[in-house]
Every structure is written in C-alpha cells, then in structure tokens.
Write a structure and sequence with these properties.
CATH superfamily of the largest domain: Glycogen Phosphorylase B
Distance between the termini: 9 Å
Strand content: 15-25%
Number of helices: 13
Oligomer: single chain
CATH topology of the largest domain: Rossmann fold
Structural class: alpha/beta
CATH architecture of the largest domain: 3-Layer(aba) Sandwich
Order of helices and strands: EHEEEHEHEHHEHEEHEHEHEHEEHHH
Number of domains: 2
Strand order of the largest sheet: 3-4-2-1-5-6-7-8
Radius of gyration: 21 Å
Largest sheet: 8 strands, mixed
Shape: globular
CATH class of the largest domain: Alpha Beta
Helix content: 40-55%
C-alpha cells in the first residue's frame, strides 16, 4: 500500500504562470514526487477569490483548493487553518508536508498525523523591510504567527544552514531537522547557448529588500567600461510603488532610460528565454533565504553576481560559480559585473561550475528522492510502520 502524503502550500492553478517563491519550488517537486513508486500524493492550497474544489496538477496529482478568508491576520488565521485541516482529514494521510511556517504549518501540526515542515522565507527578517503603519502591523502579526508555528513543529526540512540558524534565533527548533535543498525545474537545465553579450538579468520583485537601487547605482559605473550593458528586470513591480518610483527617478536622472527595462512577472518559458539571453544574473538583495533565481541561473549555466547575505553563500561558490560582494558596496558590485561581462573565459568557467553544482544539488528528481526518505524517517520516528515508504 502506498504512503499517502498531503503536501500543503502555495500551488499555482496554472503551472505555466509561476512567479517565483514557494510556487516555483512546489511545482517541480510535485511533478517528481508523482513519478516515484510507493507514494500517493495530494496537494492542498489555499487561495483568495476561488471556490473550494478538487482539480488536478499538471502531473495528475489531486489538487484540493481551499478558499482563503479575508482578515486572516486579525483572527490568527483560524478559519483558513480550520478549512485546510478539514481537507487533510478527508485525505487521511500517513504524512503531512507543509511548505512554509504559516497557515499550512499551523494546519499540519493541528492533527494526529506525522508531519514535516519545509521553511522557506524567514518572515521576521523580511518584516524588517516593511514600511508604513499597515505594513509594520502585517510584519508584526506574521512574525508572531511564525513563532507560534515554530514552537509546535516537530520535524523540519532545512533548505540551507542559514534557515536553521534563523529558526534557532527566534525560539529554537524543537524537533528533528532534515537537510533537503529546493529543486529547480528541469527546463532551466535545457539552456545550452553560451553566456554572451552584455545583458544583465535581475530576477525578483521590485521591493526594497531586493536592492534594485544598489544595482542601478553600480550600473552607472559599469557603463564606463561596458558601454553596451543592458539590464532586464523580471519580477512583479506593484508591491512597493514608492520604491519603484525611486528606481524610475534614478533611471531618468542618470540617463538609463534606454538601458533598463522592466519586464514584469514572466512565465516559466519566458524566464528560460531570459536566462538564455543574459550574460549574468545579478542579485543585490539585503536579505535572502535560498533564492530560486540563483539556483535557476546555475542550472542554466549562467554566472551569478550576488550580495554575500544570509543563505546566498551556501549556494554560490565564490570565484568558482560566481562573484559575491558585500551589500551596499557599489564599487565592488560594479567591479564584479564589469569583470564578468568583460571576460568570456570567466563567464564560461563560472557558468559551467554553477551547472555542475546545480546538477548535483538541485535536480528535482534527486530532491524528490531525498524528500521521500524524509517521509520514511518521519513515519519511523513517529512509530508508524509502513512497508511501502
């Protein structure tokens, strides 16, 4: 009899339109888990403006959709957690796997089933970059809820050492920790053209935490050595209109109108095209956990220039698969980008090394097998025997 797993998390209803974050992790993981023998996988997602219902993922896995309620923070998400828990009961799983320390984790620990939680974004760190009374209130409430869930989880998947360090910082880890990294969609490994030209790709939302202004400042210096440099920004631009306006003003003031292009959120296929087009991925964030864009760029054999923050150094081998600089060090960032754009051999060498790392660490089938082992160990530790796991 197969092991029945209920995986909880933000899952896209249209898998062609995945805009990063947990969705970009869950979709390839679900597809690979669905191919493994001995598992019966169900996916549960909670989305606003939808009706409760049952559909299927692209891999044919049952996808249970739960309507998300308004004012969740003010009510400690009680209705959403209850709705998800009811669906879990209807599935009657052997193991529950929640993606993120939020409503899905709260639902996972609510029942009698063995559970494991994969922690992605570090909410209390991200909350430090919110502004305005409403934003600070949301950050405060989300951070409190993160701590509430953390205290109740008994089995974690840590996607890199930084995650575990931060979980200890906010209250400790009260259970077993497994180390399994995030997967990358196989399509990014299919980019086979060489890294050429002078196009820089920045993949991420235009928000203060992502540090686009830092990249724009460096770009003005890069242009002195690489006049043909171009920057393409792939990511949602509506969350922080004030920051977007500051970026646009900088672009206008420094004559970058024909140099920088905002692409908005792109589909998976469009992102593959952007990696094929670019010479280097630039990630200039002040805080990151395990950025999907870095893993995708490595899979696509593209060198990475990134800030040496949080979980990034655990992904990028400095001077081997990319270049790392301190956040806010504009001259160092400009120098790193200029080096990569001006040196064909450096781009080829670092890009190839990045792909080798991605092949060994981020392939979805490999991550799925490691995840299946976690389910087996979780069942074993809970005292539940199951021959098929």
């Amino acid at each position: 009899m197969p092991v029945r797993v209920a995986m909880l998390g933000q899952y896209p209803l249209d898998e062609a339109h995945i805009f990063g974050g947990v969705e970009a992790v869950m979709a390839p993981l679900v597809r690979s888990l669905a191919r493994l023998e001995g598992l019966e996988l169900h996916v549960v997602t909670c989305l606003p403006s939808v009706q409760n219902g049952l559909t299927t993922t692209a891999a044919g896995t049952p996808l249970h959709v739960v309507q998300r309620h308004r004012l969740g923070r003010a009510t400690w998400h009680v209705r959403d957690v209850s709705s998800i828990a009811r669906v879990i009961h209807s599935i009657s799983p052997n193991v529950v796997h929640a993606q993120g320390l939020g409503i899905y984790a709260a639902a996972a620990v609510r029942g009698p089933w063995p559970h494991v939680v994969t922690t992605h974004g570090i909410v209390f760190r991200e909350a430090e970059f919110t502004s305005g009374l409403a934003g600070r209130w949301r950050g405060f409430m989300d951070s409190r809820f993160e701590r509430y869930c953390l205290a109740r989880v008994r089995a974690f998947i840590s996607i890199n050492p930084y995650v575990q360090q931060e979980m200890v910082r906010i209250g400790g880890v009260h259970g077993t920790v497994y180390r399994v990294e995030n997967p990358v969609d196989d399509v990014f490994f299919g980019v086979n053209c060489p890294s050429e030209g002078s196009t820089v790709l920045c993949a991420g939302r235009v928000i203060p935490r992502k540090g686009l202004l830092e990249l724009l400042r460096a770009l003005t210096e890069v242009r002195k050595s690489v006049p043909g440099v171009r920057l393409r920004v792939a990511g949602e631009i509506e969350s922080a209109p004030g920051y977007l306006e500051a970026c646009r003003q900088f672009i206008a003031q420094h004559g970058l109108d024909g140099v920088v292009r905002f692409l908005g959120p792109l589909t998976v296929a469009q992102m593959v095209e952007e990696y094929a087009r670019c010479a280097v991925l630039a990630l200039t964030s002040k805080q990151e956990t395990a950025p999907v864009a870095v893993a995708e760029a490595m899979a696509a054999a593209r060198p990475v220039v990134a800030t040496r923050v949080c979980g990034v150094p655990y992904m990028v081998e400095e001077e081997r698969s990319g270049l790392l600089v301190e956040y806010g060090d504009t001259p160092a960032l400009a120098d790193a980008l200029t080096r990569v754009l001006s040196d064909d051999a450096l781009r080829a060498r670092t890009g190839q090394r990045g792909r080798e790392i991605a092949q060994a660490r981020f392939r979805a089938d490999h991550i799925a097998r490691e995840t299946q082992k976690v389910y087996q160990q979780t069942l074993s530790r809970s005292g539940v025997a199951h021959d098929a796991c």
